[in-house]
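Example 349, ligand flavin-adenine dinucleotide.
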Amino acid sequence: MPSNLPENLPENLPENLPHLEDQKIAIIGAGISGLQCASLLLEHGFNCTLFEKSRGFGGRTSTRRKDGWRFDHGAGYFTGTDSDFLPHIEALLPWQPKGTDEKFYVGATGANELAKNIAAQIIQQYTSSLSAHLGKTITTVTPTTPKGWLLKTNEGESFGPFDIVVSTAPPPQSVNIFANVESTVTQRLGDLQTYCTWALMLVTRKPLTTPDVVLAPNANISRITAEHSKPQRQALLTGSEPARNSLGQGQYVVQASRTFSQTHIEATPEEIIQLMVAELGTLWGPVPELLHSQAHRWLHAGIKVPLGEAYLLDREQGIAAAGDWCTGNSAQDAFISGANLAKAITAGS
Ligand SMILES: Cc1cc2nc3c(=O)[nH]c(=O)nc-3n(C[C@H](O)[C@H](O)[C@H](O)COP(=O)(O)OP(=O)(O)OC[C@H]3O[C@@H](n4cnc5c(N)ncnc54)[C@H](O)[C@@H]3O)c2cc1C
């Protein structure tokens, strides 16, 4: 038996089914859960095709650039306890924000470094069994004859057939993607509700007089993170002409609370900037002159009540879903979910 076959092949595999390692798996979403799921499946010899609607890897562990500044406007920093996840974040930079006893991990170039590292590793190692399609939005998954699944993009392209389709998009988006699929997975996904978060990105002429990380200073703000205090971020500025002059300025991501975000879910970014800057002003006095401001709405920022199981898998149909929403709202939850789903598919039981 070749060494790259799954270790836990079930006995008596039905003859008309392809052997596990011959199965073609489509993974929708190249955030932490999708990438980790792909990583373990590839390691066990499966053939994987990744579809990601954005132009890069990382999903909600993303980084927005403005001149030389980088804003981690999704996941601000990483922590973990899982022995498989820890090495991934320990490969980043440790950060002890001033004013706290906590130790976090951050990417030198941005939060998306975590995902980029996993992606780089699998792309390099599994060139023949991995296809990665960035900038492809999957809109439908439809059954084929003989048994399989066809994926279609918003631009009308078709991919497949696949034996198994995994969606790692947030549950409401997965429900839409699986609208033509009859499966226990889609029923369970339909019960899950996400919450929205507005994230404000600011550059101020002078830093605010706050600790580097401030959690829930009032009912409308859930977190303020001083991006300029993250290791190597100031050094990165020197490579950018417009930003070189801005050393010593303040750079922040301000996350609105769930209540504020829900109340203002349909507001424009301009309205959000005005409202949230006014909120900041009520905390520590007038906000220093703003040199840049931008607001981003994460419509599906997190899950209200997690599923409470590590993944969803309908083995009979070949339909599965994974993501942080299975057990919580952190990158570690996403990693563990993707890993456990891959192990379940690999084990074939
Ligand atoms: C504002 C904010 C702050 C956060 N702070 C932290 C923090 O400090 N620490 C921490 O650990 N975590 C934090 N998180 C949570 C962390 O970002 C997530 O838990 C983690 O990134 C989820 O990974 P995932 O792979 O499950 O989902 P995602 O990252 O959402 O990945 C899903 C992917 O699917 C893609 N996709 C969706 N629909 C389609 C489609 N139709 N076709 C193709 N692709 C599709 C998306 O583009 C996305 O890349 C934060 C999140 C937010 C929003």
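Summary: The radius of gyration is 21 Å.
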